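Posting this for the archive.
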Amino acid sequence: MIGFETHDHSHCIATGVAAADARCREAGLRLTETRRRVLEILLERHRAMGAYEVLEVLGKGAKPPTAYRALDFLVKNGFAHRIERLNAFIACAHPGEDHAPAFLICRGCDAVAEAPSEATKGRLGEAARKVGFRIERAVVEAVGLCPKCQDAA
């Protein structure tokens, strides 16, 4: 799981950007300078960010479509995830891997951790199988308190 522990951000940034570079080369995709910078911003902050927050960090010359297009590219290609509850985006903790994460969202500080999950297993998968339903995509977002906010309470 990635999200609530203290760790080396520079390692995350280097690893995340390198994984995106490699995946783009393999798939014939273009990791433009703007897309790369948006990914770096998400990796630097290590938290969910709204598009306008990303836009602020990009600087005065950037326009809203620039941020939205870059974020769409990153999500579509598995380098970032959209957190529905927060209407925000977070860098993927496992870029290039085929996975369906669950997001643990702190209601105190809005920190987000990405945890492994499989929608086709557990109770949801069992319920789907019972009615003959095949799950193609599931977004799992759990809300609670992170360790830091639990300690503060």
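The radius of gyration is 16 Å. The beta strands are 80-83, 88-91, 102-106, 112-115, 140-144.
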